[in-house]
């Protein structure tokens, strides 16, 4: 069969990726942010794809962006092409192999002392022939960009909090409904309690990473939790790096900090679990779609083993999670 001469044989994957991002966001600014490119460059790529295909893919007005019939027809094909490209890139990235020949797997644990560290240690025991190297990226949004750039392989965090364009290029495995806690200055009135009811934070301003572009999913979770409860998310502030600096800032500003129950001890503060309801942070193991590595297999097995043994995926009766997160934890 003779190929249709109107269809280009060598469409660049970058152009297809721009098209898919805009199709999912239906907004050029958000799509550009999800791909970490300038909006002008994204628009240029979409226009070039339309010229190469000889078809208009979007209807653009000052108020909205919608797919044309040709755009709807192209979308499933574009997704299959990009998925195949991601699989190819992952399979050959930096010499992926089997056994002792496999390259080191770079695993983001987010922060020291969390359950991700336990999963990594168990995976090392399950696959001693693999080199699993820890990294600390501090947030899944930042780690996702590193994974898609090939500078990181695996991370942990709230998958539903990522932009759709990022999620489409990542895979995930639910790990834990992680209870949340509040980090309080030593002399805060609520520090005397063993547990802090969520309602007791009404009128408080709580730090949740606002302004940190690497932890957008965590700040979004805080906004959803605090909505309608009279709790404010603290304004953006420079990130305190290291326990000593964290303790100094805590003693100076006295702002409570939203955290997980496994958050490591910090100077000048106490950690108290939140109750009534118990807010849960939905944690998943997340990796670049198509990644093939025996270390990833070990991590997935370790996460499943620990989740089963310790009931990490059992939600307490009074547990709270955003509705948008529930489908990602099945």
From TrEMBL:
<keyword id="KW-0804">Transcription</keyword>
<keyword id="KW-0805">Transcription regulation</keyword>
<dbReference type="Pfam" id="PF00126">
    <property type="entry name" value="HTH_1"/>
</dbReference>
<dbReference type="InterPro" id="IPR036388">
    <property type="entry name" value="WH-like_DNA-bd_sf"/>
</dbReference>
<protein>
    <submittedName>
        <fullName>LysR family transcriptional regulator</fullName>
    </submittedName>
</protein>
<keyword id="KW-0238">DNA-binding</keyword>
<dbReference type="InterPro" id="IPR005119">
    <property type="entry name" value="LysR_subst-bd"/>
</dbReference>
<dbReference type="Pfam" id="PF03466">
    <property type="entry name" value="LysR_substrate"/>
</dbReference>
<dbReference type="InterPro" id="IPR036390">
    <property type="entry name" value="WH_DNA-bd_sf"/>
</dbReference>
<dbReference type="InterPro" id="IPR000847">
    <property type="entry name" value="LysR_HTH_N"/>
</dbReference>
<feature type="domain" description="HTH lysR-type">
    <location>
        <begin position="11"/>
        <end position="68"/>
    </location>
</feature>
<comment type="similarity">
    <text>Belongs to the LysR transcriptional regulatory family.</text>
</comment>
